[in-house]
Design brief:
The chain has helices spanning 5-8, 22-25, 54-73, 76-92, 94-105, 109-129, 168-180, 194-206, 221-230, 243-254, 278-290, 307-322, 342-357, 389-392, 408-416, 431-440, 473-478, and strands at 34-38, 45-50, 136-138, 146-153, 156-160, 184-187, 213-215, 234-240, 259-263, 268-272, 300-306, 361-364, 368-369, 375-376, 379-382, 399-405, 423-427, 445-448, 467-468, 481-488. By secondary structure, the protein is α/β, with parallel strands linked by helices. The chain has two domains: 5-264 and 466-486, Aldehyde Dehydrogenase, Chain A, domain 1 (3-Layer(aba) Sandwich), CATH 3.40.605; 268-455, Aldehyde Dehydrogenase, Chain A, domain 2, CATH 3.40.309. Helix 8 links the parallel strand 6 (184-187) and strand 7 (213-215). 52% of the residues are buried. It is an enzyme of class 1 (oxidoreductase). InterPro entries: Ald_DH/histidinol_DH (IPR016161), Ald_DH_C (IPR016163), Ald_DH_CS_GLU (IPR029510), Ald_DH_N (IPR016162), Aldehyde_DH_dom (IPR015590), Aldehyde_DH_Superfamily (IPR050740), Succ_semiAld_DH (IPR010102).
Amino acid sequence: MTLTPSLTKHLKHPDRFIQIGSEARANTTALPELFSVFNPSSGELLAELPDMTVEDVSAAVARAYAAQERWAGLTARERSDILWRWHQSIVDNSDDLAAILTAEMGKPLAEAKSEVLHAADYLQWYAEEANRIYGETISAPSNDRRMLVIKQPIGVVGAITPWNFPASMVARKISPALAAGCTVILKPAEQTPLVAGAIFALAQRAGFPDGVLNLVYASDGDVIGRELCSNPDVRKISFTGSTEVGRLLMRQCSDQIKRISFELGGNAPFIVFDDADIDAAVEGAIQAKFRNAGQTCVSANRLYVQSSVYAEFGEKFTERVRKLKVGDGFDTDVSVGPLIDEQALAKVERHVEDAVQRGAKIRCGGRRTGSNGTFFEPTVITGVCSTMRLAQEETFGPLAPIIRFDDPDQVVREVNDTIYGLAAYFYAANLKRIWRVAEALEYGMIGINTGRMSSEAAPFGGIKQSGIGREGSRHGLEDYLEMKYLCMGGL
């Protein structure tokens, strides 16, 4: 549980986080087994955490179930006030939280700080939305009855978060659950559990009653996932991760018809039409592709550029990519940090090798870099066709393949020809084209003339095999509520 000096040296107030997640472990059984958390930039050991078992998860579910009635019984204002205090505590400690995030995940410190504040934004939003859970009255068919609809919390929620946004994903998942009156068991990714532990430590100080928030550390996500899915006291599973794991969890939940919210894989296209502002499109593509070293579910995975502007875009984009600085997230002016691990690095290499073997050309980058850590050069590849692996699979790395197209209608059909439907981007000026393309793209989120679109006020999620449900916005709150119809007769 204790952080190593290699991490605490980056903290302004290490005393606040030296025992990250100790509150979450206080009521668990003895855990002799530990697993390690490393810095992907240097390979340094950051912490050793208890490797919790199925019995520990079951105990956490029991605590959450016991706390559910009391938490749901608080007024919306009381729950809102606690969420507000948690929000402010995260803002006040954002520098330390960002340092923890950068150390365990690798992203540049400025990006980490932005993510932490974005996490706080979700807490603020749902602190407000907690007071806006409304029912309705229905006009009855006779005067001797009244018909009402009320909304109640679904119950205990099991949340599983990924490693690529280990702060904002935690807040985005559990803040609507808490606002709705649900208790939560959170299993953060084993690669990046430390910032989740720090956020939970701040939650404890914000005044959440015992059992409302429960943190589970474990190196084996499959074991934890099976217990959360099979335990009848868990009424809902919220998961962000790969489509393959989503399918598995969906099957495991099916016996109990358990409510699910899944945000799964993506294969986001980024289309530049011939009437686009090319300079703006280049900047948008840099944002959409290289944020978090390309390790985002909404990362631009395939860049399609119309033939008449293909050369101009390619030159300007490649020149911008060459200027991106790769390095340790704590170093100044770093734009791109490491990949999360060796497996992620190897996948990018496979995609580059496959494309080159099939005739594509590397315009810049294309190989590992640095003597330590899992760094890969920001890479641009041209001469790409849609059958290459980097166009068919989600790369999840700093690799930008550019595909030339001529027919605007054909490119829409081509980018829709995938099982994924999370996010898409396009740049154009003609309003008729903008409306036509936006409505034709089979994706849950569309960025039009922008490379960034995430907001706590907007519904985040995909269609097809990219997910079920939405996170953020008022719609995200509805996913944690049950609708109950009341018919009062004899009046």
